[in-house]
Design brief:
The protein is an all-beta fold. It has one domain. Helix content is 0%, strand content 20%. It is elongated. The mean pLDDT is 82.
Length: 85
């Protein structure tokens, strides 16, 4: 699946670009972390669908196993996107 990127915007000056929503940043829309998708694109599992096995490092440096560490309890998994500063 080819995901189309939103490249609407204009250059205001050196290292200043405004996107279609009026946000001004040092990178043009559609470049690097400003690659917002247009149209239909995969967003992940549906609500209630089992997530794949996930093992990652916690903030304390220890392994965290999404399924084993919850002992069958429900969980909310939130992904956030960093901003261009």
């Amino acid at each position: 699946m080819q995901i189309e990127r939103d490249t609407r915007g204009s250059e205001l000056g050196p290292n200043q670009y405004e996107d279609a929503e009026g946000y001004i940043a040092p990178l043009p829309a559609g470049f690097g972390p400003r690659s917002n998708p247009l149209g239909d694109f995969p967003t992940g599992p549906e609500v209630g669908q089992r997530l794949p096995d996930v093992i990652t490092l916690g903030s304390d440096g220890n392994n965290v196993d999404l399924h084993a560490d919850r002992n069958g309890q429900p969980a909310i998994l939130v992904f956030t996107r960093s901003a261009v500063w």
